[in-house]
Model the fold of this input.
Amino acid sequence: MLTAALFEIRRAFDRRRHTDLGSISQLGFRNAAWRPGRSVLCIALIASATFLIIAVDAFRRDARPVLDPKSGTGGYPLMAESLLAVIHDPNSASGREALNLSKPAFGSVRFNLFRVRAGDDASCLNLYQPRDPRILAPVGNFIQQGRFSFQDSLAKTPDQKSNPWLLLDSVFSDGAIPAIGDANSITYVLHRKLGEDVVIDPTGGHPVRLRLVAALADSIFQGELLISEKNFLRIFPNQPGYRFFLLDVPRENAADIPGAFEAALTDYGFDVTSTTERLAAFHRVENTYISTFQMLGALGLLLGTFGLAAVLVRNVLERRREMALLQAVGYRRRNLGVVILAENALLLAGGLAIGAVCALIAVIPAIVSRGGHLAALSMAGWLAIILITGLAAAFVATLAVIRLPLLPALRAE
Done:
């Protein structure tokens, strides 16, 4: 689409050579067709840089607190980990009493418990290749709740497609254990895809194959793989209790709960963090890569801007006799400046429009996957930067026109 738009611009320049003039600015528009190859080259440079910057920026992650059950936080505002395993069920009255959680403030908190087998961090925060990823196993009715969203899965039945967590209860004839991981970790850290196995060796002689059956979409589970509790107890019988928790907390109490829980469960090394902060830590790594690619686009933009200024100055120098004649018949220097600015504005606006529209069309799948959310403020900022640099190039060309010695050029004409 970008290429087709550039060809259409080239055709438009051929038609514009013979249009009638109704204003000084239209003279500048028609001057862009004087050397159509140069003008299209400028538009192509600006459009390509704009395309790259806008398209890459569409994948930038923000740190908006989202508590939708189908979001990357699963609707849980808080998460917690403990150094020592918690044996008691904190959702029961006896368990709260044993854990010193009998205060009324804790009564509205609902725990989602996970069994944990320690291992390597499988998220982008780990600089090394994980050989033995950490394993989590949800307890209770977590699977039936159907929280979090999935990027892809091996679901076959309607129930599995509506709730891919049910795939954890699948049984494979070759003895592989179904596992679910985050799509980013599966692809970029573990270098696997759905249907492939991650082999671990918990006992040093009996390797276990974890078959990836579903991929979560941008979730807080980027550092681990999840299996069913039944399979967890069979593979890791010596891992008692619970060490990972998702806390379902009323929004009005979310700010006060972390400190209170950490104080009450200090003997277990309880650490409570915000799920939004956890997700933001992963996003910062992604955004760093995105910024790197945007800098490459900015370099292309810089070259395109210098090229635009060079082309405009060259056009002015080649048409200095024409400019001298225009001034001799009554055009003022500021009128000639308007002509150059109009020519530059046409090239700049054409490049921005073509690059931005084509980029937005290219990233429609990313926009749809985020529920229509787009980093509009960031994109507007980049477009403003491109516009300012383009106008700076126009200013350089305009100065060249104003300072030209027109009398010698008129004599040559």
Remarks:
- The longest helix spans residues 275-318.
- Residues 61 and 284 are 8 Å apart (CA to CA).
